[in-house]
Amino acid sequence: MASPLPASVLDLAPVVPVVVVEDAGDAVPLARALVAGGLPAIEVTLRTSAAVEAIREIAGQVPEAVVGAGTVISPGQVADTVAAGARFLVSPGWTDVLLEAMSASGVPFLPGVSTTSEVVALLERGVREMKFFPAEAAGGTAYLKSLAGPLPQARFCPTGGIGPASAPDYLALPNVACVGGSWMLPRDAVAARDWGRVEALAREAAALSAGGTCR
User: Fold this and answer.
1) What predicted TM-score, i.e. pTM, was given to this entire model?
2) Using an 8 Å Cβ cutoff, are 33 and 184 in contact?
3) Is residue 1 one of the residues assigned to a domain?
4) Which parts pass through the membrane (predicted)?
């Protein structure tokens, strides 16, 4: 039986794995490795033709996982991924049309932002939890720190260019609840189906917190 729908994606773990699935057959063992390592929230990005089927497989066979869809950019993708079992949605950016579809989906969602004006516009619409993307290119920790003062009600999951060395700096910020990344899924390990290595890297990521110490 699947775990209850999360009230907030941001509070499930300090790191949300950003997963690109090329072969849907890898989805279940990959997800099981991440969950075993302590990372239950899994964002499957819609960058491949296997993504929707991967979400369906994880949702059906790995009940301990909270699988979501990433790189969502259209209402059609919202409908398709939620029907497949996605339990949260993440977009790289947002429009009013996309925001309306995500809001109506019935699952938690993180619209992407990279500017102060986008953050303010979402706050006006009652959205307080957001993805900050592309994090490093858009100003990194310095930018997010500057937002904390005037906009303390906004909470972020920064994603884009973040690794194990920089993640603790993001997690130290008062407006950052978790980070997104794919460093626990190195290409060679996935290609070799080395799920033991993925699990070990996931466990290291799950132990990250501000300052690099375990929570």
Assistant:
1) 0.94
2) no
3) no
4) none
